[in-house]
Amino acid sequence: MMKNKAYLSTDGEKEKQRWEGIKSVITEPLPEMGVTPRTAIWKKNKAALWYYEAPEKKYNTPLFLVYSLVNKPFILDLAPGMSMIEAFINEGFDVYLLDFGIPGYEDKDITIDDYVFDYIQKSVQKALRHSGVNEITVIGYCLGGTLAAIYTAVAEEPIKNLILSVAPIDLTDSPVFDKWVEQLREGTLTFNEILDVYGVIPACFIEAGMRMASYPVNISHYASLIQRADDKDYVDKWRRFNHWTKNHIPFSGAALKQLITDLGKENKLIQGNLFLRQKPASLSNITSNLLVVSTAFDPLVPKELSVSAIDAVSSADKKFKLVEGGHATLAANRGLPDFLAEWLPQRSNPI
Amino acid sequence: MSDSYKDIKELAFVLEKNINNLIQQELNKDEIAKSASTTIQKHASFLRTLQDYSEILSAPLNIPTKNDVANIAKLVIQLEEKVDALEEKIDGLKERLEQDHSSEKKEEQNQAKVQSLKETSAEKNSGSSTRGNKLRQELNKLSNTDKTGQSLEKLLNLSLLLTPTIISDLDTNSSKKEKNDDEK
Fold first, then answer.
1. What is the DSSP string of B57-120?
2. Angle at B176 between CA B174 and CA B182, to 5 degrees
3. What is the pLDDT of residue B176?
């Protein structure tokens, strides 16, 4: 960055650099993302369990990352120096990432039960066998955090630590469109038929839904780009993040129907009456060490949707942390955040 | 010049926030939600009819539908699940074999210890534990094939270690008794 700015001595040069930066966004190919070395140790349907080996392992307890079903998980490994996965392995943790893949029409009947038992539970078992250890840390981001919490509530595997990052758990009060949620709960608004007809909800519909709930009109990031387009590093990072925001994936209709009904309408998870394959998925079953993290400027998942998890679990060691940032800040971090550096290593069985 | 870009950026943020708040406020109304519900139901009904007729027409036109392709894909997924289940069983068997192998090694080590104990007890009780030797001989025949025999042999060796003098006394007493009977 310093080398780039060294010769920008005049405003004219800076302006030239700025417009070249803007032009490069349109003309140049996208940089490669998800480059941290990894191995696929298990695959099921469209999903893959990726293993990232720590160059110098310092902790016996590996990390198991569960990402959301609405985006692609490469946000966790955007670029060298801008990668949570890279930060974890450089700290000495072995990392396993469950990538659910991109569902097709044949996946329209996959439910949350299937995702929890046949995908998450199976891949945790594979990770435990592969690593040869007796316990594991599960980290869930956004909807992945919700799934991670549900899984831990029914898990037979030894989950030592559970970290929920901007995960919606308690949907008592909706941050947006509360009138729509009221009508959903009264039964006058229903999405079941439309979800059945589409089968798999197209990615553009998912993106539209996310946009309506957060930023229906989104122009400020272009203004930020124009202001800093003379900085090649900034342009590079902007392109990577922008590419991720536009890469939503289709959503299984059966899973979305279950989420809307069981969590959105009846709020079963926080109420303690959620059942998966006749097993109670009550948060009170969770006894793992728990860290719940929310960000201060998240329009999608404000802290009110996550903080109640602390009182619902049976864990002895539990903590809620509110940090600066937006919805994607914790996934696209440049290094291990301070709150994680304080909390995780001591609970991960140092070698 | 760079200050004006900063001003544009700040203006864009404020404008964006205001427009978004307005949009969300206008859409967050009961009548809009009800109207959306009706539209969604009609849309779903229309699409359902379209899909049903597509399925019917696919027969005379001899063209596959999305459902046909999805069904084939589901069969492949089912097959993958079966292979996965087999793989898990093999992994389980592998683990059990490894456990058995390690326990067999332990068994062999125990046998070697038993052998050394035998030799030690034989040195201690040579000539005096006749009965013990007889028992040991009989058990040796069994021990190569019979696990029970092995266990008994182990017990015998332990008892010989613990009470070698008792057996030697028994033997001495029994030989004395025989002598007395003879004298009588």
1. HHHHHT---HHHHHHHHHHHHHHHHHHHHHHHHHHHHHHHHHHHHHHHHHHHHHHHHHHHHHHH
2. 105
3. 52
Q: Which residue has the tokens 């993958």?
A: B80
Quote the minimal CA–CA distance from B94 to chain A in Å. Answer: 12
**A284, two tokens:** 């009170």
Q: How far apart are CA B166 and CA B125, in angstroms?
A: 11
Contact A33, A240 (CB under 8 A): yes
Q: Which two tokens stand for residue B61?
A: 């036109």
The structure tokens listed for A68 are 């959301």
**8 Å CB contact between A200 and A252:** yes
CB B92 within 8 A of CB B133: no
Which residues in chain A are contacts of B50 at CB distance < 8 A? none
Distance from CA of B57 to the nearest CA of A (A): 18
CA distance A65 to A139: 5
Per-domain residue ranges of chain B: 2-61, 111-183
ipTM: 0.84
Question: Which residues of chain A does B66 touch, with a Cβ-Cβ cutoff of 8 Å?
Answer: 105, 199
C-alpha A135/C-alpha A145 separation (Å) is: 19
- Tell me the count of A-B CB pairs closer than 8 A: 107
- Cα–Cα distance between A1 and A12 in angstroms, integer? 19
What is the enclosing helix (H) or strand (E) of A154?
helix A143-154
Q: Do A193 and B81 touch (CB under 8 A)?
A: no
For chain A, residues with pLDDT lower than 70 are 1-9, 332-333
Q: How far is CA B15 from the centre of its chain?
A: 58
**Cβ separation of B70 and A105 shorter than 8 Å?**
yes
Rg (CA), chain B: 45
Give the pLDDT of residue A155. Answer: 97
Beta strands in A39-178 (DSSP E): 39-44, 47-52, 63-66, 77-79, 82-83, 95-99, 136-141, 159-165
